[in-house]
Design a protein that fits this description.
Elements lengths: L1 E3 L6 E3 L8 H30 L1 E2 L11 E2 L6 H4 E7 L2 E6 L1 H4 L2 H7 L1 E3 L2 E3 L5 H13 L9
Parallel strand pairs: 3-4
Antiparallel strand pairs: 1-2, 5-6, 7-8
Length: 142
């Protein structure tokens, strides 16, 4: 590029080089999304497991369920699955716990028993919302 210097009136030559780094930035952003979504999903699962305590007495409606099975049972059935790089599913495995996880979370009938809701996944998500509100800040490089 050639331009005239306004102060001296002489011609000045400059060179400009542009570097297209959009692909690199997109890759880094994709990695950050995956990392943050995965971290959020595992943190929610951990909070849900921690809310379920071992007790012989059932929990009150509106409180997280209790288990008699200790480390087995519902806590063991809570799993995380990455559906894609930006989407995760957290909940109880049907193969391990059947429809009981949904009935506990929302209430309803299971067999001959009607249960009031004893949510554990929703509160786990709620307890982590503030923590993840700013999780993307600073997660993409310079």
């Amino acid at each position: 590029m050639i331009a005239r210097d306004s102060a001296s009136g002489q011609f000045v030559s400059t060179r400009v080089k542009t570097i297209d780094e959009l692909d690199r930035i997109q890759e880094e952003a994709d990695r950050a999304v995956y990392r943050n979504v995965r971290h959020a999903a595992f943190s929610i699962a951990k909070a849900a497991r921690a809310s379920i305590i071992k007790s012989k007495k059932p929990s009150a409606p509106g409180q997280p369920p209790r288990t008699r099975a200790g480390r087995k049972g519902i806590r063991r059935a809570i799993r995380v699955g990455m559906e894609s790089r930006d989407e995760a599913v957290v909940g109880t495995m049907y193969s391990a716990f059947g429809t009981a996880g949904g009935v506990l979370e929302h209430g309803g009938r299971r067999g001959d028993t009607t249960m009031e809701a004893r949510p554990f996944m929703g509160p786990a998500l709620e307890s982590n919302l503030d923590r993840f509100a700013n999780s993307f800040e600073g997660s993409i490089g310079d």
